[in-house]
Amino acid sequence: MSRGLQAAREALFSRFKIRRAKKNPNQALAKPIFLIGTFRSGTTLLAQILDHSPEIAYCPFELKDIWSSAGGVPMASPKTRDLCCNELHASHADVVNRAALIAAFEQRVTLCKGKLPSARFLNKNPHLCNKLPLVNSLFPSAHYIWVHRGLLQVVASIKRLFEEVHQRRNIWHWWPLEHETVKNRCWSAFFEQESNTAIDSERIFPGGNIKFIAEYWIESNRAIHDFYRQNKQAITVVSEEQLLAAPEEELNRICHELGIFADFPRDVLSSLNSSFNNAWKSLLSHKEMTDLKQLIYERRDEIDSLFPNPRALNWIGEIESQLT
């Protein structure tokens, strides 16, 4: 950090003694931050890093319980016991209890310690990917951070996640069927085995066809990309790969766009590395790699349209190097 920036930070802290955010929690919701991206894309990692800032009030984990119980926005998960995670639009805002939602968020902010009174509420929640127009209508002053990670890494990591969730909580995840009124799907859940006996087994995880997890990656990033095209000034785009490769540079950029100081513990930055991004090679079977290669090839143009740098052919090459 430069001397000038350090001096400005010290002046800020001398003016506002750090205290519990509950002094005026409604300030936190004046300009909230929503950190979005698919499951296993690095959203938790970035949220935890940003939470080191006294200007950010991150309330772990995803607040699905609040979105569901207070706001009436279903999000399939063990915590909510909701069965679905529907695509929602601005037109659905009238059926959301916005006042109860904000009150519950404000109450949760009071649990955040060591924050400035002006600290901004941050919600990390992958379930919002197919609900962004709704979120924007509820919180028109919000800023969004879109974290994206490679398809191969995300698909393999979600496969393992679903196995772990099933083992711990006896929950199955189901990829819904296509429907003409739904463009971007999210996962449904089953909490009793008898409930999924009539569902195509290839759509149920653990044990399903890996291509459906890839479809989730495509549709979630497509939903965010479509929202980004209409709201570029309100969205900071972050590549998980670049964040791990150059954390200080990327965090400085993110904080600049958020309008907050970038000052993070050195040990946090030095602990970041990209080695675990190679784990997909051991998590996917030969057949799963073959199936993914075919899907990526068939949908390569759509995949490449989502991000500035085309990646589809690179991923196909990476898969081929593992298959030979």
Secondary-structure blueprint of this entry?
Layout: H1 3-15, E1 33-36, H2 43-50, E2 56-58, H3 64-69, H4 98-109, E3 120-124, H5 132-138, E4 143-148, H6 151-169, E5 172-174, E6 188-190, E7 204-205, H7 210-230, E8 235-239, H8 240-245, H9 247-258, H10 266-270, H11 280-283, H12 286-298, H13 300-304, H14 312-323
Helix pairs in contact: 6-7, 12-14
Question: Would you give an account of this structure?
Answer:
By secondary structure, the protein is of the alpha/beta class. It has one domain: Rossmann fold. It has 14 helices and 8 strands. The protein has a 5-stranded parallel β-sheet, with helices on both faces. A 3-stranded antiparallel β-sheet has the order 6-5-7. The longest helix has 21 residues. It starts with a helix and ends with a helix.
Count of domain modules: 1
* Proportion of residues in helical segments: 40-55%
Order of strands across the biggest sheet?
2-3-1-4-8
* Beta-strand residue fraction: 5-15%
Mean pLDDT figure: 91
| SS content category | alpha/beta
CATH architecture grouping: 3-Layer(aba) Sandwich
Tell me the name of the CATH homologous superfamily: P-loop containing nucleotide triphosphate hydrolases
Broad CATH class: Alpha Beta
**Low-confidence blocks of residues:** 11-23
Q: What's the gyration radius in Å?
A: 20 Å
How far the N terminus sits from the C terminus, by CA atoms, comes to: 47 Å
What string gives the helices and strands in order? HEHEHHEHEHEEEHEHHHHHHH
Strand tally is 8
Main sheet summary: 5 strands, parallel
Say what the CATH topology is: Rossmann fold
Give the overall silhouette: globular
DSSP helix count?
14
